[in-house]
Design brief:
29% strand; Arc Repressor Mutant, subunit A; SH3 type barrels; 319 residues; 5-stranded antiparallel β-sheet; 7-stranded mixed β-sheet; BirA Bifunctional Protein, domain 2; binds biotin
């Protein structure tokens, strides 16, 4: 780990108690000067960490933060784990290394300078604030085998969140996770390979843990985070649980297909039997959401007929 990150991590960990800590206290703990502390604090702010600085009191995190314990993670994870304090994109990293990866290998980072969202959007990824996680998987029979995969990933994510006592979690076709009707987490599946032979998949997941006011301003849709829970989930435990659940579910999906997940999807679907609209470029279709079929297409009932819709460019909204 780079020296600058050893110091910055130590500062964040000392501030993570949520109290003011004086510049002198931090300097003594780290064995560096107060000027060096104030440089690191400014550096952290450049990485999107909101820190109050009050004369006579010191520094305090504006929003709670928890960092991954990288040693514990490396020790306890199955397969290979690639951990970074900063990286352009965890999805990008795995995509650059597909030839060397095995199913279940994953990458996790505290900060992404070029976090990717669906439809070419940016995924705002301040240091330490949220979980940025990508997992590698390979389907020997090509892309057709991966149809419906994003729904499986959403089911895994909902399951893991339940394990961490997050209630009122739902899924929105094809792969968003909602908490109290606002987006809590997003999934971006990227592929490389041929349509009809082995296909490499990178499953990227971003979960909002504690959003600061400054970050919230950059987000153009209703969002939620986990800051309302009595305690923020331990990020290391959350990462390990996510990797383990994904491995279990992807193996089941490979063996049994999407039919094994229909029940879980139906249980969590936030729009089933509701009036919705599908946005497809300039086109809008309205109807009642009837869940999904076994290929993972969205079923929409309109004018007495049920039609299946599929495609990455379709957006589902409440009518
Ligand atoms: C969405 O737009 O809903 C999908 C967001 C996916 C974000 C995650 S964060 C970890 C991984 N790395 C990326 O660059 N993107 C995904």
């Amino acid at each position: 780990m780079q020296d600058q990150w050893i110091r910055k991590r130590a500062i964040v960990n000392l501030l993570s108690g949520g109290q003011f800590v004086s510049g002198e206290g931090l300097a003594n703990e780290l064995g560096i000067s107060r000027a060096a502390i104030s440089k690191h604090i400014a550096g952290l702010e450049d990485y999107g960490v909101d820190i109050f600085s009050v004369k006579g009191k010191g520094y305090k995190l504006a929003t709670p933060l928890s960092l991954i314990d990288d040693k514990l993670l490396l020790d306890q994870s199955k397969g290979r784990c690639f951990y970074f304090d900063e990286i352009p994109s965890t999805n990008g990293f795995l995509l650059d290394h597909v030839d060397e990866l095995n199913c279940g290998d994953f990458c996790v980072a505290e900060y992404q300078s070029a976090g990717r969202g669906r439809r070419g959007r940016t995924w705002v990824s301040p240091y330490g604030g949220h979980l940025y996680f990508s997992l590698f998987w390979r389907f020997p029979q090509g892309m057709a085998q991966a149809m419906g995969l994003s729904l499986v990933v959403a089911c895994s994510l909902a399951e893991v969140l339940k394990q961490f006592d997050v209630e009122n979690v739902g899924v929105k076709w094809p792969n968003d996770i909602y908490l109290d009707n606002r987006k809590l987490a997003g999934v971006l599946v990227e592929m490389s390979g041929q349509a009809d032979s082995e296909c490499n998949l990178v499953i990227g997941i971003g979960i909002n843990l504690a959003m600061s006011a400054a970050q919230a301003e950059q987000i153009d849709q209703p969002w939620s985070d986990l800051s309302g829970l009595p305690n923020l989930p331990n990020k290391t435990a959350l990462t390990l649980a996510l990797q383990s659940q994904l491995i279990t579910d992807l193996q089941e999906f490979e063996n049994e297909g999407l039919s094994a997940f229909m029940h879980r999807w139906q249980q969590a679907d936030i729009f089933v039997n509701q009036q919705v609209k599908l946005l497809m470029g300039d086109k809008v279709v309205e109807g009642v959401c009837k869940g999904i079929d076994e290929q993972g297409s969205l079923l929409l009932e309109s004018e007495g007929k049920v039609q299946a819709y599929v495609g990455g460019e379709i957006s589902l909204r409440k009518a």
